[in-house]
Design goal:
Layout (H helix, E strand, L loop, with lengths): L36 E7 L6 E7 L6 E7 L2
Antiparallel strand pairs: 1-2, 2-3
Length: about 70
């Protein structure tokens, strides 16, 4: 699932572009070491070219946040 496939939150329109390819890899879960999926993408306040991405593990429910630069 790419960042573009995630529904926008807060009624914001979908963005063109996506996450930089070097940062497009989803993190591994620190609890069970499985790949995490994108749960939410939201714009970072006061940074027009940055997004906050929340990843979640379907196996154990662990979540993690990453700040990424939009392309």
């Amino acid at each position: 699932m790419s960042a573009q496939d995630v529904p926008s939150s807060g009624g914001m329109p979908p963005r063109s572009g996506g996450v930089q390819s070097s940062q497009n890899k989803t993190p591994a879960c620190p609890q069970c070491d499985r790949r995490m999926g994108v749960k939410q993408v939201a714009p970072l306040l006061f940074a027009s070219d940055m997004d906050e991405v929340i990843y979640g593990c379907d196996t154990c429910g662990t979540e993690t946040k990453r700040t990424v630069k939009r392309t």
